[in-house]
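Annex B. Sample input.
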Amino acid sequence: MAGQLKIAKNALFLYARTIINMLVGIFSVRVFMQAVGVEDYGLSTVAGGLIGIFSFIIEGISTSCSRFITYELGRGDSERINATFNTCMVVFVLLGLTLVLLGETIGLWILTHSLNIPEGREGAAMIVYQLSIASVAIGLTQGPYQAFLTAHEKFNITATVSLINTFARLGLLYALIEAPGDHLVIYTVVMFGFSMTTLIYYRVYCILHWKETRLTMRLKRSIFRPMVRFSFWETFGAISRVVKGTGFPMVANMGFGVVINAAIGVGTTVSGAVTGMAFTVTSAFKPAILKEYAKDNIDTTKRLILNSTMLSMVFYGVFAIPLLVELDYVLHLWLTEVPSLTLELCTVQIVINLVLMAYLVPTESVKQMGWNKGIGIFQLAESIVTMGVIALGIRLGWSALTVSIIYAASLIPNLACTFYMVRRYLGGKFMRELARHTIFKVLLVEGVTFGVLKCVDHLMGPSIVTLLTVCALSVVITGTLTARFLLPAEQLNNLKLFVKARYTALRTA
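Annex B, continued. Sample output.
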């Protein structure tokens, strides 16, 4: 029970952070467009995102580092934890140097020869790109420290720092509206300073609290070899996400210009903010799942996977469904100027992410257990096929909406592959319980909620009162149906005890 309450506490910290970040982040896009304009907003998306071409290397190693540190913490060997930390640090330093080399050669050539940059903004694009390289390269050395914070489940620290950065960014954007000079360049430089300050704080905190972060810069082969194997296969999945996540805006830019990048940027912000609500629960469960697996508590591991999947889908639905119902009204309320195709792209992404929520936790859990080879290979193959179809479609004259739907729907084959891998490694019984008693029931609850909210919207008409009513009803309906049909009795009792304990603590404070 104590473990469940700790997870609930971690989820609460992350949930509060995500809600505030979502609201402020969505509002910040409007202020950002006011401060720099639609074209510069699209420019920052494509130029700043170019470094994402190389992020597959970063993501593969980062995931491996976090996985091995968390696994060793579950086993409780202090010396091996320190050895794992230092092995990770050596790898990240070498990776940072490699990133700079690739970024200043291949990436620079793409920026100057392939992208559709508005005339006169080449200098600003170069500054955005160079500071993106510097930020990522320096930030890489923070990877092992960040892994320690996550493995120790210090989500209160990361949540607080994240909120400070969010409000600092919003304040900067407001200041830029009336400031002289190139607003995009000023924004990029100051945000670089914010990221460096955060890096220093995290590093100092870890050094002061955990002796295992003592730095010796020694690489231990017995740790390095399995880490490289895990990273190699993880890199396949990371490449697939880069090919799609970075490649799609770049291909769309070549076919439709920076205006479509603005629409993609807004759609990604909206979809990412809502999806982040569900990722909150996943982040809270992930260290616990791996630690239980390291202790060979397989039944507990499976139960945590089921609970995390269910809660991730529920939390996504609570925010995604009312947003889907009121999307047209919200976009016009939110943005002074809504880029063309934004409504359509947002709708597609929100709907298709229902699939993402169903396969995210099982996929990550199976990979963290060390079975990431098959999933990585399939994801890479799927992403290459998807981008090939999209590039061909643009050449054939397909519309931006059509290629966007193809891009989003490519998650469906990933779902099928994930279910096959989960059944292979965790058993058919577990797979049936996941599909029938978790995913199907959640989708049914979300379908009922959407139907009710759509009727309310139709009866009341578009207004701020309707928006607030629909949001409130989403929480009430989804919460009631979840408690009645989805939560196991044990989990429901634990939740009641947690809420009661928090309420008692607030009253006696």
